[in-house]
Structure formats: structure tokens, C-alpha cells
Amino acid sequence: MRSLILLGLVGFAAQLVDGALGMAYGVTSTTLLLAIGTNAAAASATVHLAEIGTTLASGVSHWRFGNIDWKVVARIGVPGAAGAFAGATFLSSLSTEVAAPVMSIILLTLGLYVLIRFTTFGLPRGNLGKPLRRRFLAPLGLVAGFIDATGGGGWGPVGTPAILASGRLAPRKVIGSIDASEFLVAIAASVGFFVGIGSENIDFAWVGVLLLGGVIAAPIAAWLVRHIPPRILGSAVGGVIILTNVRTLLRSDLVDATGGVQAAAYVGIAVVWAAAIAYSWREYHRDKATESVEAVEAELGRRAAGDATTA
């Protein structure tokens, strides 16, 4: 019973972050399922089944708050579904011994990307309003869908920063569109896993509690996306993903690190993680202060221009 409650809280927290940041539900949930010994394909299948409900709830919530560009959803979601089905059938064909470290390496890579991307660059805002072309979104969706199914997460970590980096869509609409299109990806990946491993390796009680936690968090996250600093949240989530998957790799047969090596690695990661969050916090407040100064200067300029016109 305690493990089910814990999974429900994981689903709630993961969806809260995912809905506010446009990523991390699958990566966070799968990482924790792997940490408690679930095999790779079953972990990813469990998360994707839960995501059918959470992404639907999240999409509806973002739609109600006006956070979705439906053209982007269509152009990235359909190829994303194709990539997810292919990734699910590929992962299902791997043995548990091979799949677990492979998935941890994918998740670790995604965690590093999230940490570095948000800590170093924050959210780009240039080129806002320019159209996002199908020739950009379709390959992006195909790759992100494949990584999402094989890594147990990755749709958001690949898709959200890529679209944000283009600077062509407002951050809240990037997040809302990615969350809404993930509904198609979750369905396709789930079908792929049923074809590959069947249903006997999936604990539907776990699916249910992950789903329940995520559905409760979805409307809260859609509201928070206008208020929470994504740069700080990105650094925090990236660190969690890195730490957990380094732990999995160090304890795997592939590495089999000693206790001293593991402890040194954890301390090193914790120090870098704390520094990244502190840097993101400082840069976020510096950017806010700069924006305030620019707003005051712009207002003074408008008033000066008005006084000159009156004179």
C-alpha cells in the first residue's frame, strides 16, 4: 500500500513538473520505476499507459488556458506517434539485462541535456511569431517519439527545448502543444508495448496510481505555467534525473562500481546540481531586474515623447 501511495505522489509531482515545463513526466516516473527494480520495457509501458490519461487531462487543461497551437500539435504529434511505436517494439526485443543500462544511459543523457540547456541558456525568445515548418517538426517528432518509447521518456526533453530554441512560439504555447501532442505518442507507444511484451508484465495498479496523481496535477500545472520560473525548475529536474540514473548505472553489472566510487560520484553530482540551481536562480532574478529596468526606461521614453509633442 505504501508503494502505491508513493507512486501516486510520484505521478503527481512528475505531472506538475511536466505540465509547467513541457517535459519530465516520463523521464522522472520511469527513472523511479527502474530504481525499484522494474524491467525496462515494463517500466516504459507502465508510464506510457498512465500517460494516455495524464496527457489527455493536461491537454484539456492547457486548451482551457489558451496554451495550445493546434497546427504544431498535428505536425509533430503524428510523426511522433510513428516514432514511439517503432521505439516500443525495439525496446521490447531487448533482454532486461541489456535494456536497463541502455535506458539509464538514454535517461542520463536527457537529464544532462535538460540541466545544461536550462541552466546555461534559460528560455530563448527571439523570432517570436514566425511559423514553425512541417519539415522541422516532422523529423523532430519522429526522433523524439522513438527516444520517448526507448527511454521511458524524452518527448518533452527533446521536443520542448528544440521548439523553444527556435524562438518562434511563446513558451506557454510550446509547453501546452508538446503536452497535448504527447497524447498521440502515449497511445502509439502503449500499442507497441502490447505487441512486443503483452500485458502480463505490466502492473495495472501502478498504472492507475500514476494516472491518478497525474490527472490531479494536470490543471494545477497548466495554471502554474504562467507563474513558475522554468529555468530554475529545469535545473532542478535535470539534477534529479542525472543523480538517479547514475545510481542505476553504477550499480549495474555493466559498471559494478565500488561503494567509495559511488559515494564520490553522488557527492560530485550534488555539488554541481546545487551550483546549477543557484546559478539559475541568480540569472532568473537578474533577467527579471533587467526587464524591470527596460520597462521603466521605455515608459520614461514614452512620457518624454508625449511631453515633447505637447510642447
Structure at a glance:
The chain has about 300 residues and is mainly alpha-helical. It contains eleven helices and no strands. About 85% of the residues lie in helices and about 0% in strands.
Descriptive key words:
11 helices, cell membrane, single chain, 311 residues, transmembrane, Probable membrane transporter protein, TM_pro_TauE-like, TSUP/Inactive_protease-like, mainly alpha
Draw up the topology in text.
Layout: H1 2-21, H2 25-35, H3 40-64, H4 70-92, H5 96-121, H6 134-151, H7 155-166, H8 171-197, H9 204-224, H10 230-251, H11 259-310
Polypeptide structure, described:
The chain is mostly helical. It has one domain. It has eleven helices and no strands. Helix 1 runs antiparallel to helix 2, helix 1 packs across helix 8 and helix 4 runs parallel beside helix 8. The longest helix is centred in the C-terminal third of the chain and has 52 residues. The mean pLDDT is 76.
